[in-house]
Write a structure and sequence with these properties.
Layout: E1 14-15, E2 30-36, E3 54-58, E4 68-72, H1 81-87, E5 101-104, E6 122-126, H2 151-167, H3 180-183, E7 206-210, H4 214-221, H5 231-235, H6 242-260, E8 269-273, H7 284-287, E9 294-295, E10 298-299, H8 300-308, E11 315-317
Parallel strand pairs: 1-4, 4-6, 7-8, 8-11
Antiparallel strand pairs: 2-3, 2-5, 3-6, 9-10
Length: about 325
């Protein structure tokens, strides 16, 4: 986020929330048109299939006209030619397959009743189409596949475009490739994971995550093709047996251990709840609404806003499932 007061003191927070937006009916009805960055093609900044990168921009207004929130879309990775070819036929690999409009809700909402601290900021959703979390920069293109691995160039091209559209007083880093401070010690693939990268980040950071992240449970811990007895549990935590809950509690324990290894920086925000969900910033019912998840007496939107504006620090970790009665139930979410 970039915060401007009277045109001064701009800061940039590019939020890389690792989530895929769900096709829910949004409560505030803000639909934002797509912008194709055609000029980036000449720079080689293209999606997997060679199509131009894209983003959605909702202009700020009032006191938020000089403040920016940039959301870099998530969506997993492809890890070989076969999976990258498959992805290049979808919205996660081609801007030709992307929706012409998307709904902005949660932290991207323009309604103060749903997004009290950031509703009037310039809000951007950068579409993800390179398959490697905006890090690839390979010049060669195999003519047999026509696959382009250019995520870092997309990152750079989009930021340059946004700077020209008014974000020009925020600091602009170079292409966000994997940090050498990590790759010099670990295999490059390990440096995609936050437990190996957070220590390299000097900018104040707010970590928001569910200790029982439903996407990770369904796709990593209990991957497809696993024991069919897990089918009900991995889609609805309330259907888990005592033995299955032991496995999930172990998953939570490992996550918290990795989090503790990052240290306890006084500038860091922390909201780790025990809900069985994924993507908590853009689902309005989770971000800020009656019945939204809370830690202590604060919902996620309040915790993030208080931390960002220095109203009060926030570092809380929830008790283990099933103690949190504020968690929503989203089966198959």
């Amino acid at each position: 986020m970039a915060n401007g007061n009277g045109g001064s003191k701009l800061r940039l927070w590019c939020s890389a929330f690792a989530c895929v937006l769900l096709g829910l009916v949004e409560v505030d009805g803000l639909f934002v048109d797509i912008t194709y960055l055609e000029s980036a093609v000449a720079k080689g900044a293209v999606c997997l299939d060679g199509s131009p990168p894209a983003y959605h921009l909702a202009p700020g207004f009032g006191s938020g006209v000089n403040s920016w929130l940039v959301h870099f879309e998530g969506g997993g990775w492809c890890n070989n030619v076969t999976t990258c070819l498959q992805r290049s036929l979808t919205r996660l690999g081609s801007s030709k397959e992307m929706a012409k409009q998307v709904a902005f809700s949660g932290i991207l909402s323009d309604a103060p009743g749903y997004n009290p601290d950031f509703y009037n900021w310039n809000k951007v959703r950068v579409r993800y189409c390179d398959g490697s979390s905006f890090t690839g920069d390979k010049e060669e293109v195999d003519p047999r596949t026509n696959l382009h691995y250019r995520g870092a160039r997309i990152w750079q091209a989009v930021l340059e475009e946004l700077l020209a559209k008014g974000m020009n007083r925020a600091e602009n880093g170079s292409a966000r490739n994997l940090p050498s401070s990590c790759t010099s010690k670990l295999p490059a693939g390990m440096c995609f994971f936050p437990q190996n990268e957070v220590k390299q980040i000097q900018t104040p950071l707010f970590i928001l995550n569910a200790a029982y992240d439903s996407w990770q449970v369904r796709n990593i811990l209990i991957a497809g093709g696993s024991d069919p007895r897990w089918r009900n549990c991995k889609h609805d935590i309330s259907q888990c047996s005592a033995k299955q809950l032991e496995t999930l509690q172990g998953f939570r324990d490992h996550f918290l251990e990795a989090l503790e290894e990052q240290g306890n920086s006084p500038t860091r925000g922390l909201f780790i709840n025990s809900c069985f969900v994924h993507c908590q910033t853009e689902i309005q019912e989770i971000w800020f609404a009656p019945g939204s998840p809370a830690l202590g007496d604060k919902k996620i939107a309040n915790a993030v806003g208080d931390w960002f504006y220095d109203r009060s620090p926030f570092q809380k970790v929830d008790c283990p499932y099933p103690c949190d009665s504020t968690c929503p139930i989203f089966k198959n979410s």
